[in-house]
Specification:
There is one protein chain. The chain is mostly helical and 354 residues long. The protein has 2 domains: 181 residues, Cytochrome Bc1 Complex, Chain D, domain 2, CATH 1.10.760; 150 residues, Orthogonal Bundle (Cytochrome Bc1 Complex, Chain D, domain 2). A two-stranded antiparallel ribbon has the order 1-2. It has a two-stranded antiparallel ribbon with strand order 3-4. Strand 1 and strand 2 form a beta hairpin. The longest helix has 17 residues. The chain is globular and about 65 Å long. The relative contact order is 0.15.
């Protein structure tokens, strides 16, 4: 196994940022079985998987076990503690970084991770806590080494996935392999079978209220939601971009958003557009958990927009407080948003604890 002399671990704020063309290469992943993640979306290209962390059946198996295991933690937590499957792999609480926990869903098609996009590769998402030990899992690398080395299964699982003896590698290498395995599993968390997906496939009908909400979602003189959250040709239900959506008129601390990563004043108050898939289950909403229900979110976009120097031009009704949707229109929009719930995803046994 070889490590390029260029440093891998660039920490930005709380999460490590890793370039897509990371200098770290897996030079021997042993007999691991290549695995192609199915693409259920005709309108999306196949998922881009980095050459330095190819997906394998053994890597997914290892990552799935690690995702649900408290072995990485000193506080009896696992990744799944904050990302339970039944809630679309998120949790109704704020993370230790002071921002609402985002769901792990269709992440393999994303280009940046976290509310302000501070992480640019899924393969590096877990590195910050493993390196610094006090962010999410309260990890301790000496303890992790001992627990994994003495575990009856993990040495073989790491060997099967990466062709290495996890007991002999350095701390930094161990962190990388753990993060890589978790990323392989998280790439498999694909949601594609909501009621609206089935409607598009001609397998079911929407109610009159849901169809009314769909119309409001797309009309520029009504909800005008599609510019940020996509249309029927973008089943991710996010543009994966950053916007100041008029949540606040002044910004400091976490509310500075993307600015905390780029330092560009034009990015003040901008946050990544979250996916609307399973949005019914992912309350509270916004980066700071401002709203506890979809009804509150729709009311905000109808009457609660706040102006600021960097507000997105798409918030064109800010002078009126928002889209001015009446109660019936608001209820219809909420009804449509609930058609994006994928119940099968919540109980898919391939994603559950092994």
């Amino acid at each position: 196994m070889r490590i390029n002399g260029i440093s891998l671990l660039c920490v930005a704020v709380l999460i490590v940022s890793c370039k897509k063309d990371s200098p770290f290469k897996i030079v021997d992943n042993g007999p691991a079985t290549p695995y192609e993640i199915p693409n259920p979306f005709n309108s999306l290209p196949d998922m881009e998987v980095p050459s330095y962390n190819p997906t394998t059946a053994e890597g997914i198996r290892l990552g799935r076990k690690l995702y649900y295991d408290e072995i990485l933690s000193m506080n009896n937590k696992s990744c799944s503690s904050c990302h339970p499957q039944v809630l679309s792999f998120t949790k109704s609480s704020m993370g230790p970084n002071g921002m609402q926990i985002l769901p792990h869903i269709n992440l393999g098609w994303n280009k940046a991770y976290g509310w302000n996009g501070e992480t640019t590769a899924l393969d590096s998402v877990a590195l910050a806590d493993l390196e610094h030990g006090n962010v999410f899992l309260n990890a301790n690398n000496d303890s992790i080494k001992a627990r994994i080395s003495n575990h009856p299964e993990y040495p073989q699982l790491f060997h099967d996935a990466f062709g290495i003896d996890i007991r002999e590698v350095s701390t930094s290498e161990r962190q990388i392999y753990i993060s890589y395995a978790l990323a392989q599993f998280m790439r498999t968390l694909v949601s594609s079978d909501s009621k609206f997906d089935r409607y598009l496939r001609g397998e079911t009908d929407l109610s009159p209220m849901e169809l009314y909400g769909l119309d409001i979602f797309y009309r520029e003189d009504k909800g005008d939601c599609f510019h940020c959250h996509g249309d029927v040709y973008n089943p991710l239900w996010t543009d994966n971009l950053f916007h100041n959506n008029g949540l606040k008129s002044t910004h400091s601390g976490n509310d500075l958003g993307r600015y905390n990563v780029t330092g560009n004043p034009s990015d003040i108050g901008k946050f990544k557009t979250p996916t609307l898939r399973n949005v019914e289950l992912t309350a509270p909403y916004m980066h700071d958990g401002s709203f506890s229900s979809l009804e509150e979110v729709v009311a905000f976009y109808s009457f609660g927009l706040q102006d600021s120097p960097t507000i997105d031009p798409l918030m064109k009704n800010v002078d009126y407080g928002g889209a001015l949707l009446n109660p019936t229109e608001q209820a219809a929009l909420v009804a449509f948003l609930k058609t994006l719930t994928d119940t099968d995803f919540l109980f898919n046994s391939a994603y559950s604890a092994p």
